[in-house]
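Exercise 7.
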Amino acid sequence: MHAAPTNWVSILAKEAKGSASSLYLFFYYAGVSLGSFLLGFVWEYFGWYAIVAVTIMLLFVGIKITLGMDTVQKKEKLKMTV
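Solution. The predicted structure, written as tokens, is:
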């Protein structure tokens, strides 16, 4: 899970690559912690159907972000070769 985003961070960060990488890792782990915490409330109040719905929604959000980052990465590679 970390391989592609970590690569994108290092490609897209023009300066302060270490800071960019540490910010990525901070928000990754903060998101994992907060997401797990919030999904506990979703399960408690709405049950498994809501967990499945939220998971599918987040899956589509992740796919959209991944496709967007792939486009950005291709543009960056074009800039590097020109």
